[in-house]
Amino acid sequence: MRLRVSMLLVGVWAGLIFSDAVNAQSRVEEKLGFAVTGEITAIDVSAKTLTVKSTNDEGVVYSVSDTASIMSGSNNPTKLTLSDLKKGWAVAVNGQRQGDARVATYIKVVKNPSP
Predict the structure, then answer these.
(1) How confident is the model over 12-44, as pLDDT tens digits?
(2) How far apart are CA 57 and CA 20, in angstroms?
(3) What pTM, to 2 d.p., does this model score?
(4) Does the structural domain 32-111 have CATH classification 2.60.40.3140?
(5) Is there a contact between 94 and 70 (Cβ–Cβ < 8 Å)?
(6) Where are the domains of the chain?
(7) DSSP letter assigned to residue 107
């Protein structure tokens, strides 16, 4: 009888240990968002990158996502492409860090100097 009780307890204990392992969730790396405003200092359409100088840095290169929204205007916003942007324009850039890369997912032209 003692042997049966001992085996039953070992079985219950093992079941509890393995059920925790099965139900454990794997860790997913969180994406860190960013938002920055500044002046465009460089654009590389073929590499899909944009360099923006803000008050906090001398210029950071952002990869522009293929699905990024690029907008201009407040009342009647116009959708733009990366090639429409110009050096010297003030932009607000939102996106996410992916490892060491900063990937822009939304770019809004805040101010573009008159030609």
Answers:
(1) 555 555 554 445 555 555 567 999 999 999 999
(2) 47
(3) 0.71
(4) no
(5) no
(6) 32-111
(7) E
